[in-house]
Design a protein that fits this description.
Helix content: under 10%
Radius of gyration: 13 Å
Strand content: over 45%
Largest sheet: 7 strands, mixed
Distance between the termini: 41 Å
Shape: globular
Number of helices: 0
Structural class: mainly beta
């Protein structure tokens, strides 16, 4: 059984940084792409970014490019979302998800392509 857990959320001020972590068990972490999504109140879940199975390619939404980075540590089965220069509009519940396609060569932004999700971690940025 696959288990996905996010951590690292919290309440910060505009301009601050946070690092989210996502740990997965029950799936060979090093062979699957992973994605980060977020959902603000009253809005649809949106793609934040992702990393391919090899860790050599990442994709980021335009709204976070230049501020957020994604990395993974295969030894720890953990993916990270480093968020810098946070803005109030980054406030949302952040979710981590696993792509079920073995060694997919690209990162997909459609949440329906992901099959395993964490419970989410709240990020609140005050102005």
């Amino acid at each position: 059984q696959v288990h996905v857990v996010e951590s690292g959320g919290g309440l910060v001020q505009t301009g601050d940084s946070l690092r989210l972590s996502c740990t997965i068990s029950g799936r060979t972490f090093s062979r699957y792409a992973m994605g980060w999504f977020r959902q603000a109140p009253g809005k649809e879940r949106e793609f934040v970014g992702g990393i391919d199975w090899s860790g050599t390619s990442t994709s980021l939404a335009d709204s976070v490019k230049g501020r957020f980075t994604i990395s993974k540590d295969n030894a720890r089965n953990t993916m990270y979302l480093q968020m810098n220069s946070l803005k109030p509009e980054d406030t949302a519940v952040y979710y981590c998800a696993s792509d079920p396609l073995y060694m997919r060569a690209i990162v997909v932004g459609d949440p329906s392509e992901y099959d395993e999700w964490g419970q989410g971690t709240q990020v609140t940025v005050s102005s």
